[in-house]
Every structure is written in C-alpha cells, then in structure tokens.
Design brief:
The chain is an alpha/beta fold. The chain is about 50% helix and about 15% strand.
Length: about 140
C-alpha cells in the first residue's frame, strides 16, 4: 500500500514503511523529481507556477506562496495515499515541520480522505520509542 508519512520528509518513517513492505509517500520523492527536472532553473529553490496553481485547489490566491507551494508539491502524495502515519508534536529534527499552517492543513486533508490512519505522539524517551515503533509495526502489518 501507499502510506503517507508526516512529517513529510521523515526518513525514519519512510524507512519503517519500506521495511514492512509498503511504499512510503514522502516529500523526498517529490523533491527529487523537482531537482532533476531540467525545466527548473535553480533547483530546489524554484517552484514553478504549475506547483503554485496546484496549491490553489486548497487555498486562496491571497495565501502566502510558501504555503501554496507546499500544498502544491504535496497534492499528489495526499491524493495517492491509501493509509497514513502521523507523528504528532515531532521535533524539527525529525522531519520538515517548519511551516505550521501548511502542516496543519496537510493533516486536515489526510484526515478528510478517511483512509486508515495512525496518529502517535513523538516519543520522549526510549520506552516511548519502543511503544511508537510497535504501534507503527502493528498498523502496517494489519493493512490489507
């Protein structure tokens, strides 16, 4: 199954999803497409008008370009997701969580899809880490 991971560029979550036989839908794959695209002059700093226009599906034109751009880049991942794992209250070092508003909107869009969803808190210690990994493993193992 295609599993959306949030924070969207968490290598840890993407690795776990792959280890349990699923395809992670993570930001890295979309960014790779952008930086290898010869149409973009200065990857990864340039976002095309097409990407910004994709973001208009979710927010108005008055919304800052950074939020529209993130939503435009994430749109394909959100729409392809068959299930999702969301780590709540993750540290910045765990993945890209720098744009709070876009992140909250991405979570809202995933929940609105009504796909299988696992939400877990970012662990505070080793014991909570084991519990988090166990919950993720069980969730992924039970997906059909």
């Amino acid at each position: 199954m295609k599993i959306f991971v949030y924070p969207p560029n968490s290598l840890i979550l993407a690795d776990l999803v792959e280890r349990f036989g699923h395809q992670p839908l993570a930001l890295q794959s979309k960014i790779e497409e952008l930086v290898r695209n010869p149409e973009i002059d200065a990857p990864p700093l340039n976002i095309t008008d097409e990407i910004l226009n994709k973001g208009l599906k979710y927010v108005t034109v008055e919304t800052p370009a950074g939020i529209r751009g993130r939503l435009g880049v994430m749109q394909d991942l959100i729409e392809a997701a068959e299930a999702a794992i969301i780590i709540q209250n993750a540290r910045y070092s765990f993945g890209c969580v720098g744009c709070y508003e876009a992140g909250q909107y991405i979570i809202y869009l995933i929940k609105r899809r009504r796909i299988p969803l696992l939400e877990v808190e970012y662990p505070a210690d080793e014991d909570e880490s084991v519990i988090m990994i166990t919950r993720i493993r069980d969730f992924l193992a039970n997906l059909k």
